[in-house]
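User: Second chain of the day. Same drill as before.
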Amino acid sequence: MWVKDTKLDHFLRYIEIENLNPAKDHILIGVSGGVDSMVLAHLFVQAGFKVGMAHVNYGMRGVESDRDEQLVFEIATVWDQTFHVTQYVDNGTTGNFQEKARKFRYNWFFSLMKENGYNLLALAHHADDQIETFFIQLLRSAGLKGLGAIKARDGYKIRPLLEVFKSDIYRYAAQHGVPFREDQSNVENKYRRNLVRNEIIPALETQIPGSKHRLLNSIEHLQSANVMLNHLLKNQVPLKEEGNSCVIVKEQVASMPEPIQTLFWLLHPYHFNYIQCKDLYSSSPGSRIVNNKYIVIAEKNYFRLFPVGFEIEKFELEVADFGTYILPHGRLTIQAHQSQKNVSPETCMTLGFKDKVFPLKINNTFQGRNISPSGMRGRKKTIKKLMADYDQDLWQRNRCFLIEQEEMIICAFPLRPAEGYSQDQEGIEVDFIFTPLEVNDAL
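Assistant: Same format as last time:
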């Protein structure tokens, strides 16, 4: 086991807090060959875990990169652990190499986890990384979440060394004979992180001894404040789930001391920035903001968030009997009328049939089509106009569908039945119950 005076006994506490167990946890470790990841792998092996050691050869340093790979392979073999390796492939896009390499690395890690049954990804970020990230986020004008820097646990990602300083990691490696390689590019100030690491933090620690420990304490306070604020905000301005979308009530946002900041706080987990949220807050109904995963539209009284690719494909379904049928955006149950308790009118309609019910057709072909809505004494209205009358937004219109009998539209679900098909008609009453996709299926 490790020596107590290295201050790495914190690793044991992390295992205990996170309830990690060699019998149930299959851990993949990102191992570069540097001292941080080699020590992390050694700690897990000493604690009795069987791990996978995953190495990316970026080929940026020629033979030195190959020697990094060789070291990780040899040590994985000596320690009797699984070794994974891949070569970095540049996708040809422009941009920061560090960011492209990071994306490549994490995509590969995730694929390894799925293919090999790993349930956790262990990363060797340490206390100095935490402080560096704080300064980098500060220079980016980050808010509370960004200044909270790196999380010790983020879903399947775990960082057991986040409270351990680099000097203690070096000391542990020396005491236990853990081999590692130094990347000489880390001492060059080519990248912003290296400048912060090599110049800014050492100068601060020299002028104000103990600064690093105090900064770590401040980061912990920021993380706690972020968690608390998120909790309070979700109670004050909840995101109401509707199918695979979420609704934010404008009045609730406007009632907060900082409405734009509140909207940003609610939407930044979905990768929207402050400027986008500021523009959306003051925009007219029908306006939208978009990124590569999500769309938010502004309506008169609310904002609606939903995934890109929300459009429902055209479909037509022939129904010959009672039962449950699968639609592209949910399930439709057709049954003899029963008393429906706690069912929203947006998901259940009861129609009245004079005699026969089937066959029926269910489809979402709206263009140029008309319905004779109940209560309008036979006057026709286009489906588009009916949707406008009900203030249906873009997402809601896309979720509507038509019920037809003998080539006539008898209901625009969930808006209105046609004349002669209301529940109060004498004859057969039939429930149409629609269960949409759950919000977690898409968001």
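Residues 1-6 have pLDDT under 50 and may be disordered.

User: Great, on to the next one.
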